[in-house]
Amino acid sequence: MIKQVGQGWMLARLERTSTFLGRAAGLVILVAATTLQASVQRETSAGQRDQIEETHRAEGEAILAIADAAMAGKTPPSDFPLQWQNDYVKAQRGTFVPFTLTIDASRLTKLSALVYVRARRRQTQDDSYAVDAIFPVELKSGESQTARISRGFSVMPGEYDVFVVMRERVDPATNKSRPKAAVLRQPLNVPEFRSGELTTSSIIVADRLTTLDEPVPVDQLAERPYAIGRNEIIPAADRRFRRDEELVVVLLVYNPTVTAERQFDVKVEYHFFRKGTEGRGEQYFNHTEPQRFNPALMGPGFDAASGDPVMAGQVVPLAGFQEGEYRLGVQVLDLLSGKSISRDVFFTVGS
Fold this sequence. Notes:
The chain is 13% helix and 42% strand. The chain has 351 residues and is mostly beta strands. It folds into 2 domains: 3-24 and 203-346, Immunoglobulin-like; 38-190, Immunoglobulin-like (Sandwich).
C-alpha cells in the first residue's frame, strides 16, 4: 500500500514554515569562553574556574585556527571520517540549508566535541563569512557506532564553500593528549526560491515522518532543523534501502499560480524507473496515483496567495521492487498556468 503525504498529513498551517525556518538561522549555540554550568561554578575554586575558562578559550582558538589553515590550502587533520548531506528550503529571508553530519564515533576518544561551521561566498573580496558558528555536541552512537548531527543555517542564494571542523572537547583535568579533529569542505550552490516562478524545495528523503503535538520551541530549532510547524522530518542517512523498508520523500512546492479569487491547482506525479543491466539505460517501472492540491482539498486555513507552500510526498513500500538502482521522477504541474518542473531522486534497493 502506498501512502501519500499531503493534505492529510499537514496538520498545521504551513504559512508558519518560512517563519520557523527563518528564525532557525539565528539559533546557533555560540560557545563562549566563560560558559560554565552553575553547579560547576559553585563547586570549583576560583583557580579551577580560571583553568576551565582558559581551556574553553584555547579550544575556541584551536578550532578557528584549523579552519583558517584549511581555507589557506594546508592539509587539515583527518582523524576520523566526517560526511555531509543537506537540503534546501525557502526561509523567511534567503534560503535555509538544513544539514546532517555523519561521524564514525568508534574512531573518537570522547563523545563530547565542538563543531565549527563557516560558509563563505565564492569569488568575493569580503573577509566576512555568511555563516560563522561554533556549538558543542554530545554524540550518541548506536550499534553501528555511527553518530549523526543535524543543524541548519540561512544564506542568500549563490555559490558558497562551507568548512566544517569537528574537534574533541578537552578535559582541563587531563589535558595531555592531542584532541582528535577532522575537517570537511563542502561546496554549495544555494537556489533562489523568491523569483515568483514555480519551484520546489529539495526532495527530502526521510527515514520517517513524525507528527508533533505542538511546534518545536524556538530555542530548540537549531538542533531540529527539519521541524516544520507540527511536523518533523527525520532525514535518511543514505539512498540505499532494503526491500523490507519504505521510501519516504517530502517536498514543498512554491509559487503556484494564484488567481484574484485565491484559486490554485497543482498536481504532483511520481514515476519510477529502473536502471537496466549492462548499460541498457533505464526502463519504466511503476507510478503512484497523482496528488492534487487546490483550495477545496487544502481547506480554509491554507492561503497560497500569502506564500503558504504546498507540502507533498509519498511513502512507498519497497517489497515489490527488485534489487537494483532506481530513479524516482517527480513532476509538478501548475494546472492554471500550464507550467511544470521535474525533480529526480536516485536510490538503490538491496537485500
